[in-house]
Amino acid sequence: MNMLKPFISILVIPAVFVCAATPGGASAQAPAAPQGPRAPDGKPNFTGVWAGPGFAHTVGPRDTDTPRVVAYDAKNFSPVKPGGESFLKRKLSGNTRADDPTAFCLPNGLTRQILSPYAQQWIQSPGHMVILYEYMHFFRAIPIGAANRPHDKDIEPTWMGDSIGWWDGDTFVIDTVGLKEWMFDASLDLGGNGEARWHSDALHFTERLRFADPATVSYTVTVDDPKIFTAPWSQEFGMKLHPTWKIFEFVCEENNRCQGGQCADSEGQKK
Amino acid sequence: MVKNLLSVIAALLVAAPSLYAHHSFAAEYDGTKPVKVTGIVRRVDWANPHIWFYVEGKDEITGRTAVWGFSAAPPGMLARRGITKDVLKIGDTIQVEGFLAKDGSANASGGRVTFADGRQVFTASAEDSAPK
Q1: Residue B11, in any domain of the structure
Q2: What's the pLDDT tens digit per position in B23-63?
Q3: Strand pairing report for B107-115 and B65-71
Q4: What is the CATH number of the domain that holds B103?
Q5: pTM tops 0.90, yes or no
Q6: CB-based contact A207:A119 (threshold 8 Å)
Q7: How far away is chain A from the Cα of B3, in angstroms, using its nearest Cα?
Q8: Would A103 disulfide with which of A267, B4, B27, B37, CB 3.0-4.6 Å?
Q9: To 5 degrees, how large is the angle CA A133–CA A123–CA A109?
């Protein structure tokens, strides 16, 4: 991947007409000098509350940012294998539980979660990178160790998979396998195409994070899904640090009134 | 002071209407059925995964009169943008533009809220279709 390219254009679902502002013109090529905060052990320090890829990164007055719906850009995809289309493009059935399980408060899954336009808090220690996602209150506790070490054997597929981390110079690498076959992103019915994107349970997902400046991180993901694509492909996103932000509570089940398209009775509508 | 703050909030929201749902818009609402209800705020439920507010009034598109339920963004998302539940007060007269629930009930996505003094607040979720 040409890492000198500006941030690859981010596919924004048409309902959201927000410009795809690029965070900081980040370059992931080795900079001449270290950038960004440092942890006591000398590693780049990702601790803080971040606006992830699901924001425009246009920081406004009072430390605001603009959440937006982001999906993976098909322009980056490798060619799809014969038979891969059936994984990647699911025809919508009309059954919301199958078409968009998140409407029933089921998880986004890793690949969609990292794009969610909610805050995320990173807490770094020498041994772990902990990521707290506001959306659905998901978390990842990623052990940091040797590069390219093997994952545990016989991993049962889960929504967030088995993630391990390591340092590649000043780049933090997260390597994830063991993902349940699930929705790839929020591109449901994109442009009225009647489809939703899914990934397979063979997905190997790699995230590479590197400071571009003290408040901006280049966030490149590599998708290697051999049941769908002929080769791995990558897309570059960004994260912006927001010093005044905190994580808010998000309990999906609290008042999910119209799940599945059937709205429950409400006290607010009793005469 | 409060008015100034609300003006700032309104300006911010007009500039950036893209909030976010925890699910796709198409799962619950019909983008081909816009509603435009003018009425009185009867109740506000400031809770996850979306705030709901209830407006007793008439949809000027269909003529249907009801206590309409409008779904909007999550409380945390709104709070991060400086919007608290005080923005909608019981008894306020507002106009809400959004899209009807798929089940045809008197519920809708609550996109744009316009107050009597002309202030506009986008309370919708990002995956909701934007009111024209």
Answers
A1: yes
A2: 667 678 888 999 999 999 999 999 999 999 999 999 999 99
A3: parallel
A4: 2.40.50.140
A5: no
A6: no
A7: 18
A8: B27
A9: 30
Q: Which two tokens stand for residue A240?
A: 């912006």
- Cross-chain CB nearest to B81 (options A64, A254, A258): A64
Residue A148, CA atoms < 13 Å, CB-side half-sphere: 1
Check: CB of residue A13 under 8 Å from CB of residue A71: yes
- Say if B71 falls within a structural domain: yes
Angle at A256 between CA A118 and CA B85, to 5 degrees: 65
Question: Best mutation site among A255, A262, A271 for testing chain B: the one with the most B CBs within 10 Å?
Answer: A255
Q: Between A and B, how many residue pairs show a Cβ–Cβ distance under 8 A?
A: 155
Whole-number CA gyration radius for chain B = 13
Domain hosting residue B14, numbered range = 2-122
3-state secondary structure of A189: coil
Beta-carbon separation of B81 and A189 below 8 A: no
- Does B97 fall in a domain? yes
How confident is the model over B86-104, as pLDDT tens digits? 899 999 999 999 999 989 9
CA distance A155 to chain B (A): 28
Residue ranges covered by each domain of chain A = 35-252
User: Alpha helix (H) ranges present in A41-95?
Assistant: 85-88
Among the partner-chain residues B49, B82, B105, the one whose CB lies closest to the CB of A254 is B49
> What would you report as the CA-atom Rg of chain A, rounded to the nearest whole angstrom?
19
Residue A6: strand, helix, or coil: coil
d(CA A248, CA B101): 27
Residue (of A55, A27, A8) closest to A213 by Cα position: A27
Domains contained in chain B, number: 1
The DSSP call for residue A78 is P
In a domain? residue B73: yes
How many C-alpha atoms does A223 have within 13 Å on its Cβ side? Answer: 27
- Residue A139 phi, psi dihedral angles, 5° rounding: -140, 160
Q: Are B3 and B107 in contact (CB under 8 A)?
A: no
Q: For the residues of B50-105, what is the DSSP string, one character each? A: --EEEEEEEETTT--EEEEEEE---HHHHHHTT--GGGS-TT-EEEEEEEEETT-S
Task: With CB atoms and an 8 Å threshold, state whether A68 touches B43.
Answer: no
DSSP alpha helix (H) spans, chain A: 85-88, 96-99, 110-113
- The DSSP element (H or E) to which A207 belongs, if any, is strand A204-213
